[in-house]
Amino acid sequence: MERLPMTAAGYARLEKELKELKSTARPAVIQAIATAREHGDLSENAEYHAAKEQQSHIEGRIAELQDKLGRAEVIDVASISGRQIKFGATILLADEDTDEETSYQIVGEDESNIEEGRLSITAPLARALIGKEQGDSIEVMTPGGSKAYEVIEVSYSG
């Protein structure tokens, strides 16, 4: 069984979503199915079929979240230190062509959000950064072509 690395914040977000699905979304769809059943013939009841489809999506997401939470390996980023880039590191990068600086934290797949600076551990840029240190240069293939970056700073904070 493959472990899924994630930060404590990422784990908490998944737990919150699971709780919301179980306590709010699931009961609401069950009520919608019951209401639609009262309308008679189920073979031509669009409300019933829509509610059943929604129930299927909710149950699928619940199962997916339970699986991910069960395989989660929560990594306490605040307890990590050092100069080398590892999971959880926050990295300040400079684009070697434009000198534009960007900051990313390397996180688990389910908590990544590039707009918020959270980069998935499976992303090509994150894979290129792992093991590097401040001052190192990396080159990574992007959809727009090859990009070169310099690691300006590496830090760890929860």
UniProtKB/TrEMBL annotation:
Superkingdom of origin organism: Bacteria
InterPro entries membership: GreA/GreB_C_sf (IPR036953), TF_GreA/GreB_CS (IPR018151), Tscrpt_elong_fac_GreA (IPR006359), Tscrpt_elong_fac_GreA/B (IPR028624), Tscrpt_elong_fac_GreA/B_C (IPR001437), Tscrpt_elong_fac_GreA/B_fam (IPR023459), Tscrpt_elong_fac_GreA/B_N (IPR022691), Tscrpt_elong_fac_GreA/B_N_sf (IPR036805)
PROSITE patterns associated with the record: GREAB_1 (PS00829)
MF terms in GO: DNA binding; RNA polymerase binding; translation elongation factor activity
Keywords assigned: DNA-binding, Elongation factor, Protein biosynthesis, Transcription, Transcription regulation
Domain spans labelled Transcription elongation factor GreA/GreB C-terminal: 83-156
Gene3D superfamilies in alphabetical order: Transcription elongation factor, GreA/GreB, C-terminal domain (3.10.50.30), Transcription elongation factor, GreA/GreB, N-terminal domain (1.10.287.180)
GO biological processes: DNA-templated transcription elongation; regulation of DNA-templated transcription elongation
Segments forming domain Transcription elongation factor GreA/GreB N-terminal: 5-74
The keyword Transcription is annotated on this UniProt entry: yes
Pfam families per UniProt: GreA_GreB, GreA_GreB_N
HAMAP family for the chain: GreA_GreB (MF_00105)
Function text: Necessary for efficient RNA polymerase transcription elongation past template-encoded arresting sites. The arresting sites in DNA have the property of trapping a certain fraction of elongating RNA polymerases that pass through, resulting in locked ternary complexes. Cleavage of the nascent transcript by cleavage factors such as GreA or GreB allows the resumption of elongation from the new 3'terminus. GreA releases sequences of 2 to 3 nucleotides.
Family assignment from sequence similarity: Belongs to the GreA/GreB family.
Protein name: Transcription elongation factor GreA
Classification of source organism: Bacteria, Pseudomonadati, Pseudomonadota, Alphaproteobacteria, Sneathiellales
